[in-house]
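R.M. (postdoc): so does anyone remember the format we settled on? I'll just put the structure tokens first.
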């Protein structure tokens, strides 16, 4: 498995891009607070996926 990006990370990046498109169509009253929370959650998911990909394998996870 060399330096190729994980399929899960690619899908998470696609989710973030799609999420931004969808969030533009939110109602004005919900656009700021709810959109910001959703954006933060999407980026957090992507960061956790990348962090898990760099972590050494756990010996007990076999």
């Amino acid at each position: 498995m060399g330096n190729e990006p994980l399929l899960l990370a690619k899908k998470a990046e696609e989710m973030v891009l799609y999420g931004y498109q969808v969030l533009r169509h939110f109602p004005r009253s919900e656009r700021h607070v709810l959109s910001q929370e959703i954006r933060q959650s999407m980026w957090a998911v992507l960061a956790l996926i990348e962090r898990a990909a760099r972590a050494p394998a756990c010996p007990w996870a076999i």
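R.M.: ...and that's the designed sequence above, right after the tokens. Also worth knowing: The chain has three helices and no strands. The helical segments are 7-23, 28-31, 33-54.
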